[in-house]
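Folded chain entry —
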Amino acid sequence: MSPAARSLLISGARRRRHHHHHCSGFSTEAPSSSPLPKGKRWDAVVIGGGHNGLAAAAYLARAGRSVAVLERRGLIGGAAVSESDLVPGFRFSRCSYLLSLLRPALIQELELERHGLKLLPRSPSSFTPCLDGRYLLLGPDAELNHSEISKFSKYDAEAYPRYEEKLEGFCKFMDFVIDSAPPELRHEYHLSMVDRMKDKVDKSVFWSKMFGVVMQQGQKDMVDFFDLLLSPASKILDNWFESDVLKATLATDAVIGAMAGVHTPGSGYVLLHHVMGETGGQRGVWAYVEGGMGSVSSAISKAALEAGVEIVTNAEVSQILVHKTSWRVQGVVLADGTEVLTPIVLSNATPYKTFVDLVPANVLPHSFLSDIKTADYSSATTKINVAVDRLPQFSCCKDFNREGGPEHMGTIHIGSESMEEIDLAYREAANGVSSTRPVIEMTIPSVLDKTISPPGQHVINLFVQYTPYKLSEGSWQDSNVRKSFAERCFSLIDEYAPGFSSSVVGYDMLTPPDLEREFGLTGGNIFHGAMGLDSLFLMRPVKGWSDYRTPVKGLYLCGSGAHPGGGVMGAPGRNAAFVVLEDLRTK
C-alpha cells in the first residue's frame, strides 16, 4: 500500500473516533461475549484475538471494512495477556513479559497511548549475579556500562559501545525489512495485465530501497552483517569480548525462546534483538507495561473497537470454509456449528494449526502442506509466574533496598555466568532431559508497576530454558515432575539470593505442552515456529508464501508464523492488513 493510501486510512479512522460501536470484548481479563449477528456477511474475519490479529482487524476496520475477531479463549490477547487470581491478589503476564519490539508506526497510527498503553522503561536493564560475589549491571547509561564491565575487563569496557553501535547500524536495515511485506515472485493469475505490471514495479521498488539501505552500510558493514546472520552467537561474542560473564549475559539474547544453543549457526542474528526494539524513541530499551502485557492487547483492542470491529470471545473456529471448485474462502465454522460467512479470513493461529487443522483436507498443494508439517515448531521454554512476599536479596549486593534497588529493575540472569553453562543446559535438553541448572531470565515488574501485586509483595517472571516438549523419562503431566522442576529453579535462585524459595506464596507454571494446549502454540513454540535462518523473510512460513497470502484465495496469515516472526511487535498483523487491502483494491 502506498504511503498516501496509508495516510488516508489513518486520517479516515480519526474522523470515526467518536462513533459508538457495540463491542463484545473490551477487557483482556473478562470481556463479555455475545453471539455474532445471525446471517451477517463480513468483509473479513480474523481467527484469534492475539495482538497481531487485533492489529490486523483494527487496520482493516479503519479502512472501512466490516471485521469480526473470533477468539477461542474467554479473554483476548493470545500470548500478550494479563491474568488475575491464578494466585489471589496478583496479576501475571502469563506468557510474554517485556516490550520493546512493538512497531513505533503501529503505536502512533493506532494511538495506543490514548487507548491506555503506558510503558515503564527499565534502568538498569540487566543484572547478572555471580557466585564469586561479583555482579554485572548493564543499561542505557554508557558511563554505568563502562564502569561495570571494567570490573571484569578493561578491554571489553572499551569494546562494548562499538559493539552496540555496530548492531544499531544493522537495525536501520532491519527496520525497513520488518515493516514491509516480502516481495514474492509468484504469478498472480487473477490480476489484470496492468496490475501484474504494477506488482512487478512494486517489487522492484522494494529491492531498490533495500539495495539503497545496503549501500549506505558500506561493503565491510554488510560483510559483518552477513557474518552476524550466519554465525553462532558464541563466535560473534568471542570475536568482540574476553569476559565470560559479559559474553554469557549477551548470549542469552541469542537463545531466548529457541531450542538452540550458543554454538548453533545463525543464533547470532537474534543478538540484534538486544538493540532492535525501542521505548520512547530510545534504541535497545525494554520496558514493562503497566497492568501487564495484557494492556498491550487491551489498547489495540480499544483501537479496533473504536473503528467498528466486533470482538467475540469463547468463539473457537473448527474449520475454514473453502469452495470445492473455486478453492476460495467462504467463511469459517465455529465449534458449536455456527457458520460465519466472509470472503476473507486472516489467521492469527500458527501455520500448523491453520493449514493442518483448520483448512479442509485435499485443498492445499501436497508440497506446501508437507513444508508446513515439517517446519520446526520445537520449544524448550517454560514460563513460571511467581508470587512472593518479599524481594529477593542477592548475596553479591551489599546494600539492600526493600523497595527495590538497581539489581531488581531489569532482567536478572541466573545460571548464565559463562557460555559453557548455557551450552551444557542446551545439550541436556537436546537429549530429552530438562536442564540440571536451567538458564533463567528473571524479571520483577512489580518494582515499577504497582498495579499487579499487593503492597510489599511482588510478581516475578521466570523465563526458563531448557525444558524439552517431550521428556526422555517422565511426563510434564505428572504433578511430581512439574513440582520437582519448579523447585529446581527456585533452588538455583537460592544460590544467588538465599531464602528465595521461602518467599514463594504461589506460582503458575507453563511448560511447552501447556503453552500448546492453553494458547494454541504448536509445540509450545512462542514464536509460532523457529526463527532459524531457514525460517525467516522469504522462507517464513515456507518458501514461496512469505507475503501473508496462501494457496487458498482469500486466506491470509497474520500471526508470528508469518514474516517477520515472533515477539510482541505487531508487524505481521499490520503488514498482513495492508496486503489484504491492496488485494481488495486490485480485485
